[in-house]
Amino acid sequence: MRRVIEELIPEGLEGERVDRVVAMLADVSRSVASSLVSDDAVRVDQRVVASGSARVTGGQVISIVLPDTDEPAVVGDPSVDFRVVHEDDHILIIDKPAGLVVHPGAGNLDATLVNGIVARYPEIAAVGEPHRPGIVHRLDRGTSGLLVVARTSEAHVALVEQMSHHDPERVYTVLVWGSLDTSSGVIDAPIGRSNRRPTRMAVVRSGRPAVTRYEVERRFADPHPTTLVTCRLETGRTHQIRVHLSAIGHPVVGDRDYGGGRPGIDPGRPFLHACRLSLIHPVSGETIRFDSGLPADLVEILAALS
Questions:
Q1: Which structural domains are found in the chain, ordered by start?
Q2: What is the pLDDT of residues 159-209, one digit of tens each?
Q3: Strands (E), the chain
Q4: Positions marked active-site
């Protein structure tokens, strides 16, 4: 089924190249965006765009015709349980429980957070990509905590732009194996697909730039040396915190994919919680901030450490 994305270009994208705007809105690579332009599949204010280097103006309407796809629309599932900590006419802030996949994909076609969102807020089904309506960033299945969801196309465009510039503040509470040598630091290392294990990510020279800042909160010695840290993302690569901490020899406790699944302390999932989210409201322009305390399973783990 052919899909058409039609969005109002926000003022924040004033002067951007049209192929970059297409890449952001359609969630495709720049090369795919260029191909869409070449195939006359992109219009701005009803006029076919002749070149990907053309510049857009805030307030214009961009239409993107995507190729035929057999991808089904998301079906609402009211049985999916999740907590909304804030809602208004434009956004939701959700505190996602661990174990819940954010949107349908290979191996997880239903019972995702998005299925639950569409059941509770059916209008979101028409916002953004059909297979992940309203979603502008993700949390891994085993990660708990805060994420923002767009309720309108206007909010979706603005939030995608914020995420592309890494403007929102995203802070995580993490327990890692071992005792870090310094009380704070910056991990600046590119992340891409692992050459040895393509389903995993790794620090690779050809990867995309990735920066994580960390600060030590507490150190523990018993039953094994571990450190509680706060991590702040300056970029948002897949599995970024997990990959970066593993790369410096301090994998996340409970993270079996990246070397953190060790005996003695077992949360049953990575000890990783998105504890703070701060962003600019896509319509009011106000800076808004939300905090989430550690869930009970992680609190229980900490209580057993000394």
A1: 3-66 (3.10.290.10), 71-165 (3.30.2350.10), 170-274+299-303 (3.30.2350.10)
A2: 988 988 889 999 999 999 999 999 999 999 999 888 788 778 999 988 889
A3: 3-8, 42-44, 47-48, 61-66, 83-87, 91-96, 144-150, 169-177, 184-188, 191-193, 201-203, 211-220, 226-233, 272-280, 287-291
A4: 140
